[in-house]
Amino acid sequence: MIDFYYAPTPNGWKVAILLEELGVEYTTHLMKLGEGDQFKPAFLAISPNAKMPVIVDQETGTSVFESGAILWYLAEKAGRFLPDDPALKLEVMQWLFWQVGNQGPMGGQLSHFVNYAPEGQDYSAKRYRGEYERNLAVLERRLDGQDWIVGEYSIADMLAFPWVFIAKPLTSSLEDFPNAKAWRQRIKERPAVMRAINLHKAKQNRGEQNAQNNKVLYNQSAAHLLDK
């Protein structure tokens, strides 16, 4: 049994996809980020960065935070969606770090300035759209002549998929990235993936909570963690 601390965002989807693909039993704990659930002491004890997703493996008592680490932990434990070959396994690790260090943060910043920031953020949106699409180009080149990021369908694909899935809401088009577009469609057609994307779909923040009306979810500082 896995306890899954979740909000319906691209980062939450990454872990939900693997849980659904593995078919493991899990309990979802829906996080109310706009109300400050992420700053409660019990959650900070398992998520020092005050972010979700987080899992707690009830079988071992192990808690894991950060989506890339969670996918690696679950895939290794299950012996699925992670290559046995050491060279390919290293490749998967490199693409996980690419996603969590490049694609994800750039997509997240673009989403903020496109969907939630005050008006007049033209430079910021332009910068992060450029970085987001630069990462699309990295993925496009990687997928040239192959269906998946590394060998067979793996956690590398699951981790990168959500931020490509929402390209349109981020005001980017996949028309210039045919390999990435076809890859997105292959993953989208998987039933487990769509179950994950639809998990608590009605609770998605569609701009109702933004930088103007929610100072808990946005404009965070050290004070949120240092209790000042």
TrEMBL record:
EC nos: 1.11.1.-, 1.8.4.-
Residues of the GST C-terminal domain: 85-209
Domain GST N-terminal span(s) in chain numbering: 1-82
UniProt keyword list: Oxidoreductase, Peroxidase
Enzyme type, top EC level: oxidoreductase
Family affiliation: Belongs to the GST superfamily.
UniProt-recorded name of the protein: Disulfide-bond oxidoreductase YfcG
